[in-house]
Design goal:
The protein is built from eleven helices and eleven strands. It has helices at residues 16-29, 40-45, 79-90, 103-113, 139-160, 175-183, 198-210, 227-238, 258-276, 296-300, 308-317, and strands at residues 3-8, 33-37, 49-52, 96-101, 118-123, 163-168, 188-190, 216-221, 242-246, 282-287, 290-295. α5 (139-160) crosses α6 (175-183) and α6 packs parallel to α11. The termini are far apart. Bound molecules: 6-O-phosphono-beta-D-fructofuranose. Residues 11, 102, 125-127, 169-171, 222, 252 line the site of 6-O-phosphono-beta-D-fructofuranose (F6P).
Length: 319
């Protein structure tokens, strides 16, 4: 294994740059040639390669986004697109590819693996929705961004004695809402993994109000539905003055936290180790403090489970 390429794909996540840096530097350290592929699978199909050296990844460890850019590509879903992508790797003699992204990106990587490319996935998404790893790169930063916003909203919520609904990202997963809700002291957290009754939510709000709570914060994961719809219902059912904030893409940007930088550095380096060992179709993960590897198929065919005890604790502490 002497020639390695790396790409970032899907929604960007803070820490992707640190992961790219780790892949490039570790590969160069081990005597490999490394290529960066720009714009994910779109760039791979369109031959958007650049050979990387140590300096190519200087001054990026602290930057959000991805220096390799990212894209979501419909064309790559076609057999022609996948053939072209593989051919662009093969003509350079590249025998190992590191894909940094989410489960959709890993599914894309398997099309190349089926054609003979050795692929390793590194989980990079703010959603923390990938099985077989406790955390994905970008999640910690996104949660910290969310609680910074929640803390600010709390100030104005207190001043005006209002109810605030805050919608956070996560696609079909509730981890951002759960972690931001518990650390932000939310009264209620609505996540797709846990059914909830509007009546119970309203009861809880009214109870809090009666015993003197001046304001309430309700965290809604986007997978549950629109924060605006939930805000409207709350207003209608309680009569409380209610406002809605959708945090949106704010959560995808910003300088990665130390945790994300460390995670990305360890995972990126591990991906190169795996390729040099001759491994393929693997995803790097973290379990506890240990960096591990699992079959990509196992990761994409299972669901990432939320920690139910955290959900229950959030309910108890917001009593
Ligand atoms: O997967 C990351 C994510 O930010 C999700 O939380 C969100 O549902 C989606 O991407 C938004 O995608 P886009 O940036 O393409 O609008």
């Amino acid at each position: 294994m002497k020639r390695i390429a790396v790409l970032t794909s899907g929604g960007d996540a803070p820490g992707m740059n640190a992961a790219v840096r780790a892949v490039v530097r570790k590969a160069v350290y081990c005597g490999c040639d490394v290529w960066g592929i720009y714009r994910g699978y779109h760039g791979l199909m369109n031959d958007n390669f650049k050979q990387m050296d140590l300096g190519s990844v200087g001054d990026i460890i602290h930057r959000g986004g991805t220096m390799l850019y990212s894209a979501r590509s419909d064309e790559y879903r076609t057999k022609e697109g996948q053939d072209r992508a593989y051919a662009n790797l093969a003509k350079r003699g590249i025998d190992g590819l590191v894909v940094i992204g989410g489960d959709g990106s890993f599914r894309g990587a398997l099309h190349l693996a089926d054609r003979g490319m050795k692929v390793i996935g590194v989980p990079g998404t703010i959603d923390n929705d990938i099985a077989c790893t406790d955390f994905t790169i970008g999640f910690d930063t996104a949660v910290n961004t969310a609680i910074e916003a929640i803390d600010k909203i709390r100030d104005t919520a207190t001043s005006h004695e209002r109810t605030y609904v805050i919608e956070v990202m996560g696609r079909d997963a509730g981890d951002i809402a759960l972690w931001a809700g518990l650390s932000g002291g939310a009264e209620s957290i609505l996540i797709p993994e846990q059914a909830f009754e509007m009546d119970e939510l309203v009861e809880r709000l009214k109870r809090g109000h009666k015993r003197g709570k001046k304001h309430s914060i309700i965290l809604v994961a986007e997978g549950v539905g629109s924060g605006f719809t939930i805000g409207e219902k709350i207003k209608e059912m309680t009569g409380f003055e209610t406002r809605v904030t959708v945090l949106g893409h704010l959560q995808r940007g910003g300088s990665p936290t130390a945790l994300d930088r460390v995670l990305a550095s360890r995972m990126g380096a591990k991906a190169v180790d795996l390729l040099l060992e001759g491994q393929e179709r693997k995803m790097v993960g973290i379990r506890g403090k240990e960096i591990v590897s699992v079959d990509i198929e196992e990761a994409i065919n299972h669901k990432h489970n939320i920690d139910l005890s955290m959900y229950e604790l959030a309910g108890v502490l917001a009593i």
